[in-house]
Amino acid sequence: MPLCGGYPRAVFSPQGPSLRELCVQALSSVERGYDLLAPKFDHTPFRTPQSILAATTEALSELGPFGEGLDVCCGTGAGMLVLGPLCEGRVTGVDFSAGMLARARDAHPEAAWVRADARALAFVEDFDLAVTFGALGHFLPAERPALFEGVYRALRPDGLFAFPLGAPPPLTSLAHWTTLGFDLAMRVRNVVRRPPFVMYYRITPLSAIRDDLTAAGFSVDVVGLTALGQLANGSPRYGLVLARKPADAY
């Protein structure tokens, strides 16, 4: 989910939401906000770009094929473009926004769709591959353990949880100050208005994500998604986090 700094007309298509609609969404809860945005979500820059989906699919294809697949916080179903080619069994999306699920169901009727809170997944060893795209910023650090423990339970032994994670932008870059400003604005919004809208870009550093995944029982590796470009220092702009449930887990 790329950051949209401001509301440039060149980024939002005519089919996308108006500025007023985005403001109403931002002043709602996360669930209500995404219900409101769902009909136009695929016409915003918040939808995971095809380039990230394609790079993820290519990287995971070297580790598959897989059996059953799960998209955690599936939104309108973009992750099915990854799970579909990689999974030989059924694919399932889970989200707590009824509006998002309705759009996903229309776009991918062949998949199964479940409305649930990702912090309290009820699946037990049902899947071989789980993915998520652009959702981690919706979980406060204290909520990540429940999320990761639920995904761990949902996977079969030797199952894989995979998701792309962008490198932090350089301190001197416009992206750094834009994300910092966005997060500060969201924190102020959540102090003065309830219910909160949790969406932060700076609470998911790789070191913290790795620690939380390891605490949940995963072994963790990261591979560079080189097709998505490099930073000035030569490191990849995006990495693919690969969290593996041990084959002897019980």
TrEMBL record:
GO biological process: methylation
InterPro entries found in the cross-reference section: Methyltransf_25, SAM-dependent_MTases_sf
SUPFAM superfamilies: S-adenosyl-L-methionine-dependent methyltransferases (SSF53335)
Highest taxon listed in the record's lineage: Bacteria
Keyword Transferase: yes
Methyltransferase domain location: 70-159
Assigned keywords, A-Z: Methyltransferase, Transferase
Gene Ontology molecular function, alphabetical: methyltransferase activity
PANTHER family tied to this protein: TRANS-ACONITATE 2-METHYLTRANSFERASE, TRANS-ACONITATE 2-METHYLTRANSFERASE-RELATED
Name by which UniProt lists this protein: Class I SAM-dependent methyltransferase
